[in-house]
Amino acid sequence: MLKTIRVLAWAAVALLVVAIVGTLAYQSFYGGSDRSMIADTKMGAPFRLVDHNGDPITEEAIEGQPAAVFFGFTHCPEVCPTTLYELAGWLDQLGEDGENIQAFFISVDPERDTPEAMKSYVENFTDRITGITGDPKEIHELEKAWRVYAKKVPLEDGDYTMDHTASVMLVDSEGRFKGTIAYGESSDTALEKLRRLAKG
């Protein structure tokens, strides 16, 4: 009897450890926590891609002003449209307080996200968000530079979707990490983070 209790106790401990590890992995990959990044860490890397108008764009576009940066894709069923809709609304609510904040939507699916597709997509939400796409290899390097998780996931019908970090990254005018807005975070909290970002 005592042996059985010990076995059950160790099994419970093992399940608890698995749950904790799984939660931490989820937070690391999907942006539920800022702990995987250090405040004031310089984010990003040099790149040469194209914006949603088909014009060349480099890392210089993200420098010089505080920025909200989100990685996603136009075929995203829920997270991306929800995030862009909310981000557009928050920027609108901030009014003059948030005029200096830039916003970028960087594709993790450049094979399908052409400049034309990105333009049609982002302009459904606001003219404040700049879409960025381009060479898949450069996009992949940019994902690594921003500590973003992105992975192609095959579907049963032969198509595919993308798993990716679901947080909005916040950086100051010098490109230093200032936190994230997690998917599903309350509007009040998100607005306060953006106000702090705008003030520098």
Notes on the protein architecture:
The chain is of the alpha+beta class and 200 residues long. The protein has two domains: 1-30; 37-199, Glutaredoxin (3-Layer(aba) Sandwich), CATH 3.40.30.10. The protein is built from five helices and nine strands. It has helices at residues 2-30, 79-94, 115-122, 136-145, 187-199; strands at 48-51, 56-58, 67-72, 102-107, 129-133, 150-154, 160-164, 168-171, 177-181. Helix 2 packs across helix 5. The longest helix is centred in the N-terminal third of the chain and has 29 residues, at 2-30. The protein starts with a helix and ends with a helix. Residues 2-36 have low confidence and may be disordered.
How would you describe this structure in keywords?
200 residues; Glutaredoxin; 7-stranded mixed beta sheet; 5 helices; 22% strand; globular
CATH architecture of the largest domain: 3-Layer(aba) Sandwich
Stretches where pLDDT falls below 50 for ≥5 residues? 2-36
Radius of gyration: 19 Å
Helix content class: 25-40%
Order of helices and strands: HEEEHEHEHEEEEH
